[in-house]
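Journal club side-thread
Mid-discussion, someone asked how the predicted structure for our own chain would compare to the paper's figures. Pasting it here so we can look after the session.
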Amino acid sequence: MRKPLIGVVGLVALWGVDARAEEVEAPGPDGSASATTELSDEELLEMAEAIEIFDERPDKPFDRDTQVRMTGEELAARGATDLGSALALIPEVTVRDAGRGGFNVDIRGGRKGAVSILVDGVSVSDPYYGTFDVSTIPITDIVQIRVSPTPKSPIDGIGGPGGVIEVITRDAIGPQVVIARLTGDSLPTFGVAGTARVALAKHLALRISASGTAGARDMELPNNASIGEARRASTGSARIEYRKGDRRVVADGFLDDRHYIAPPSDTNKAGSILMIDRETTLRLSSKVDDKIGKLQLQAQGWAHSLDRRSRLFSDATLETQSQLEDLSA
């Protein structure tokens, strides 16, 4: 029964096309074969269909083919203030506070160490604890967030077994722009972020970004006491980019320094308080993209440095220090 039915449908479709063709070719009341041949170019232009073209980030030879989940404009419209609040808007992604500060990101059950976070192709996970403070990337820098639930990133090779989150930041090449955001809440927490880019030459441009956060949220302790988080953080980054045709050379620098008290455990009867006295992160990266005929070439290198000084106190007054940890990588 299937084949005769297909034949009938095909016959009806062909007949409809022929009927329309005959109707168009039929002469009009004035005997002319086609009325459109008598119209001027201006009249034909008015009859043409309008096609809207929206300005978007141009694809580069090595853009990822993972699914774009959020753009910078969508995140700003929904009130996201940094990468952490942006990732929380994606249904299959969960952002959790880490015990030693920072955040862990899960994708569909893939937990700490199973999810790789790449910022412009650079892995940003903590080399010691596998965490990454997603609040270090301001919303003014983010252009796209891509999520791959599979363990392999198409361009950057093997990732975590739970999935890969790729964050693409704003290019230096483009129209001159200045973006700034000021945020605050009743915890209280205050933050400011800004991004600016400017052309240095015909094919050379610079982008600089900076953000700062201060917080005094009170955190409850098991003995009906509280302690302020004493959070302060400052972040700065710069990108210089050369682009001519398919050739692209990029150099990035990132510096973050922060101080805070980690949220205490609700079941910690000893009342130990962990203070991250100083945490400094430095990243340098460079990338070269080029396209020669059908051959695409890419070279990338980066260096990641982390210095963290942690102090453990046995009392909420932060007078009795019981342990000191100084890490460098």
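Post-session note: Confidence is low (pLDDT under 50) at residues 1-29.
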